[in-house]
Amino acid sequence: xxxxxxIKALEKYLNEKLQKAMDEVGETAWKxxxxxxANEMNSRPENxxxxxxxxxxxxxxxxxxxxxxxxxxxxxxxxxxxxxDPYIYVNKPFNAHADFDMVDVxxxxxxxxxxxxxxxxxxxxxxxxxxxxxxGIINLEDxxxxxxxxxxxxxxxxxxxxxxxxxxxxxxxx
Length: 174
What we know:
mainly alpha, two-stranded antiparallel sheet
């Protein structure tokens, strides 16, 4: 580890390393979620009828670059609905990601695919487009709970920041 003239220089060095480590951990989490959702979609041929594959749902899985704010480093894995086109057709009876009134509903695609489609009035599954939920966010939350601290520790050690204590506590917000 290099030597430092003052605490500010040490803090800057550690923050840079932490951002790099969190970027790698975020990339690992992104890859886990992407692979999980792709596997779930590919293993369910019945979903082809429910969701005509534009692959925009899968390809909307995105990650932010690490940010340090108030002493906390944050990387977010999310469905970037800006990557899902509404496909509004003027002279066709159906739109791909828009309702019958040509209102864009593309931002609801990840919610619909992850948690299922239920009739709002009854709370029961919608028989027209019923499908088994994919659960990408739920799976990612479970992965983070099990793997985040280990992945972060591994990346910090790889970057030359020794983590020698036995208890490595990390809090996270999903």
